[in-house]
């Protein structure tokens, strides 16, 4: 079973990712599906990453954490975040099919990022209403 | 579940190499990675145990160019073969478009092939997919061991055991020498692309 997302929606997703996340100083934003496909990507131009591999690993990572949550009786672990010295990765679920992966440096505060991520996710969800 | 990006005219296709442990799934990808090194832009990703066994998956992206104006991006995965890792195998199968079942032709591995194929059928069923409908190629690996005196299952036995109902294209192969590795890859890509195109109509 194939699926596509129409061009208008992809353009809107791109502008949401750019305005809400790249504009606050985030390096890279990836919207992926849970099978590891890349749906949309946006970057500040500061870094280049191997996006296909990141998407595959991020989908796997998310699925693994989700499975761990079920084992200990949690519905989900709502905050999934890897902190590095220079680059950190923040994962969030948009809906059952899509995930948002954000790579950012030390100049962005986690609290502010989480606020903006929540806003961006609300806007993306609204595109399907 | 291939993803079609209408904006960039790109189709992302997921092909999974499945089969019993130590059957040669990772070796297939390693051979492809070496053979097509100049066409693959990134490093192969392998999540392994200390003992060099696949723990989660291997991942190799492969661009095959354009078909009908669409850029086709093949994403190849393996699963961990060890029996205890079925939860992980299921995760990797999510959204699969095409499958290569790498069977181990060594006589002593006969039962493992059967169990692995049966489990593949069950795992696909959990995603509401039928092993009889999904693009599938069987590969009988380790044919090179015949020359080293290792007892192998005959092709007739392998066909009878694994392919009597499936009737999928099948190839004797050696992931180590490269025999039929590229043939298998080309076949699964063409069968999968044909299935995707049928759905696009």
Topology (elements, then pairings):
The complex is a heterodimer of chains A (129) and B (201).
Chain A: E1 3-5, H1 7-20, E2 28-33, E3 38-43, H2 51-71, E4 80-82, E5 88-93, E6 98-104, H3 110-126
Antiparallel strand pairs in A: 2-3, 2-6, 4-5, 5-6
Helix pairs in contact in A: 1-3
Chain B: E1 3-5, E2 10-18, H1 25-35, E3 45-48, E4 54-67, E5 70-78, H2 86-93, E6 98-104, H3 110-126, E7 136-141, H4 155-163, E8 170-172, H5 181-200
General description of the model:
The complex is a heterodimer of chains A (129) and B (201). Chain A has 129 residues and is α+β, with helices and mostly antiparallel strands. Chain A has a single domain, classed as Beta-Lactamase. Helices cover 40% and strands 24% of the residues of chain A. Chain A is built from 3 helices and 6 strands. In chain A, helix 1 runs antiparallel to helix 3. The longest helix of chain A has 21 residues. Chain A starts with a strand and ends with a helix. The mean pLDDT of chain A is 93. The two termini of chain B are 16 Å apart. In chain B, strands 1, 2, 3, 4, 5, 6, 7 and 8 form an 8-stranded mixed beta sheet that branches. Chain B has 5 helices and 8 strands, in the order E-E-H-E-E-E-H-E-H-E-H-E-H. The interface between A and B is medium-sized, with 26 and 30 residues. Strand 1 of chain A pairs parallel with strand 1 of chain B.
Could you tell me the number of beta strands of chain B?
Answer: 8
β-strand percent of chain B reads 25-35%
Secondary-structure element series of chain A: EHEEHEEEH
The largest inter-chain interface, given as chain pair and residues per side, is: A-B, 26 and 30 residues
From the spread of the alpha carbons, the general shape of chain B counts as globular
The helix/strand class of chain B is alpha/beta
Shape of chain A: globular
Report mean pLDDT of chain B, rounded to a whole number: 94
Q: Percent helix among the residues of chain A? A: 40-55%
Low-confidence stretches of chain B: none
């Amino acid at each position: 079973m194939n699926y596509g997302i129409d061009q208008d929606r992809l353009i809107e997703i791109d502008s949401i990712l750019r305005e809400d996340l790249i504009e606050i100083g985030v390096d890279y934003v990836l919207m992926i599906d849970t099978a590891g496909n890349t749906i949309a990507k946006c970057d500040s131009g500061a870094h280049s990453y191997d996006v296909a591999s990141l998407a595959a690993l991020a989908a796997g990572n998310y699925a693994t954490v989700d499975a761990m949550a079920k084992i200990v009786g949690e519905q989900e672990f709502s905050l999934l975040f890897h902190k590095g010295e220079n680059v950190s990765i923040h994962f969030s679920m948009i809906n059952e099919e899509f995930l948002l992966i954000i790579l950012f440096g030390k100049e962005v505060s986690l609290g502010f990022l989480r606020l903006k991520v929540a806003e961006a996710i609300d806007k993306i969800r609204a595109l399907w209403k | 579940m291939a993803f079609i990006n209408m904006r960039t005219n790109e189709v992302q296709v997921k092909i999974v190499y499945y089969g019993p442990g130590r059957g040669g799934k990772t070796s297939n990808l390693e051979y492809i990675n070496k053979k097509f090194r100049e066409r693959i832009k990134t490093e192969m990703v392998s999540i392994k145990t200390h003992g060099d066994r696949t723990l989660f998956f291997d991942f190799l992206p492969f661009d095959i160019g354009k078909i009908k104006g669409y850029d086709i991006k093949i994403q190849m995965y393996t699963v961990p073969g060890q029996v205890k890792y079925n939860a992980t195998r299921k995760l990797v199968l999510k959204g699969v478009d095409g499958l290569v079942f790498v069977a181990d032709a060594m006589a002593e591995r006969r039962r493992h092939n059967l169990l692995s194929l049966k489990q593949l059928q069950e795992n696909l069923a959990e995603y509401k997919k039928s092993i009889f409908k999904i693009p599938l190629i069987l590969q009988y690996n380790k044919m090179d061991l015949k020359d080293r005196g290792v007892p192998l299952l005959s092709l007739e036995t392998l066909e009878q055991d694994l392919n009597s109902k499936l009737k999928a294209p099948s190839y004797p192969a050696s992931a180590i020498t490269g025999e039929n590795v590229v043939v298998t890859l080309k076949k699964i890509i063409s069968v999968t692309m044909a299935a995707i195109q049928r759905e696009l109509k």
